[in-house]
Amino acid sequence: VTGATGFIGSHVVAQLLAKGYRVRAAARSVPKLQKIFPNASGLEMVEVPTLTSDYTESLKGVDAVIHMAAELFSKGSPSDHIFEAAYNGTLNIVRQSIDAGIKKIIITGTFASLFDCDISYIPHHFPVLIILQLS
């Protein structure tokens, strides 16, 4: 699980552990993971500094990837940098997962992480996207 220190990522890790899964949690900060999950049984923690880092070692022995990591918008952050990091980071983890022979990849995300939270967005401002499942 990438982004395991995030709000949703930490809840996904907690639910997987509660269901008895062994989880490898990836985040920028292992100490933060340790603070969120002290004494967690079945949890392996790995530090991955950026979304475009090398995940080769972290993916060894993994059956499935749940990619939840993302850079969040903050004041002064160029939005193109955040979008590029999210896009390239997702491509990076997908490519490395495929190279590692992982057949199950779940990618989550929200366009809200790319925008200024002080601006009100109205649903009709955004077209519905149709996602085709590739087989």
Describe the overall structure.
The chain is of the alpha/beta class and 135 residues long. The protein has one domain: Rossmann fold (3-Layer(aba) Sandwich), CATH 3.40.50. It has helices at residues 7-18, 30-36, 56-59, 79-99; strands at 23-27, 43-47, 64-67, 104-107. The strands form two sheets. It has a two-stranded parallel sheet with strand order 1-2. The longest helix has 21 residues, at 79-99. The two termini are 23 Å apart. InterPro entries: NAD(P)-bd_dom, NAD(P)-bd_dom_sf, NAD(P)-dependent_oxidoreduct. This is NAD(P)-binding domain-containing protein. Pfam families: NAD_binding_10 (PF13460). One of its GO terms (cellular component) is cytoplasm.
Question: What would you give as the CATH superfamily?
Answer: NAD(P)-binding Rossmann-like Domain
CATH class wording = Alpha Beta
The count of helical stretches stands at 4
User: How many extended strands?
Assistant: 4
Q: Number of domains in the coordinates?
A: 1
Give me the secondary-structure category. alpha/beta
β-sheet strand percentage: 5-15%
Give helix and strand order, one letter per element, not per position.
HEHEHEHE
Question: How does the major sheet shape up?
Answer: 2 strands, parallel
Measured between the Cα atoms of the first and last residue, the distance is 23 Å
Please identify the oligomeric state: single chain
Name the helicity range.
25-40%
Rounded to an integer in angstroms, the radius of gyration calculated over CA atoms is 16 Å
Q: What is the mean predicted local confidence, pLDDT?
A: 81
- The CATH topology comes to Rossmann fold
CATH architecture grouping: 3-Layer(aba) Sandwich
Pfam families: NAD_binding_10
Domain NAD(P)-binding: 3-111
GO molecular function, one term: aldehyde dehydrogenase (NAD+) activity
Organism: Lentinula detonsa
